[in-house]
Amino acid sequence: MAMRFATVTAAGLLTLTFVGAGTAVAQNLRRVAAKHEAVTQRADEGPLRLRLGAHVVSAPADFSGLVRLTPNADYRLLRVVLDSDNFYRSSDIQLEGDRSPRSHFLWWRSLPAGTYRIVVTVFGTQGLRTQVTQEFLVVGDPLGQPIR
Fold first, then answer.
1. DSSP secondary structure letters along 12-62
2. Structure confidence at residue 46 (pLDDT)
3. Does residue 3 surpass a pLDDT of 70?
4. Does domain 48-139 have CATH number 2.60.40.10?
5. Residue 106 class from Cβ within 10 Å (0-12 exposed, 13-18 middle, 19+ buried)?
6. pLDDT tens, 57-89?
7. Where are the domains of the chain?
């Protein structure tokens, strides 16, 4: 038996390192890692894809993204979370399984300066199905004044 430690690469991929161990803890870690592997993917591959309008923009920023989702009979909810130190938005979009639209356009207006993380999650009848995460930067005055 082996214990796995997870790290995230610069490309956003989960990598696992094996270290010898043979305990119930290692078995639990393997189950957690297997579940994470099953639902986490790169933002530009697989049934759920996230494309951002840019990765660095000036404050106050109008920002866009595109979520592409391969329809699946099990999919019921698409959750989009945008989070930074001074800003938070969350949206839930109901899905109709394999009749769901493939494209979902996202817009945020007047974002203040900060580092943002977008997490897009798809839930099915049995819970979490897949998830992608990306980050982008809004540069400028923390009070929201444009850079001149």
1. S-EEEEEEE--SHHHHHHHHHHHHHHHHB--TTSSSEEEEES-SEEESSEE
2. 73
3. no
4. yes
5. buried
6. 888 899 999 999 999 999 999 999 999 998 999
7. 2-39, 48-139
φ and ψ at residue 67, rounded to 5 degrees: -105, 125
pLDDT at position 146, please?
Answer: 54
What are the C-alpha distances in Å from 15 to residues 6, 41, 56, 81, 129?
Answer: 6, 11, 27, 24, 19
Please provide the distance, in angstroms rounded to a whole number, between the alpha carbons at the two ends of the chain: 59
| Cβ contact 33:45 at 8 Å | no
Burial 119-137 (b: 16+ CB within 10 A, else e): ebbbbbeeeebbbbbbebb
The predicted pLDDT at position 54 comes to 86
pTM of the shown model = 0.66
Q: Half-sphere exposure of residue 55, counting CA atoms within 13 Å on the CB side?
A: 5
- Using alpha carbons, select from 35, 132, 9, 45 the residue that is nearest to residue 17: 9
- The yes-or-no verdict on residue 2 having pLDDT over 80 is no
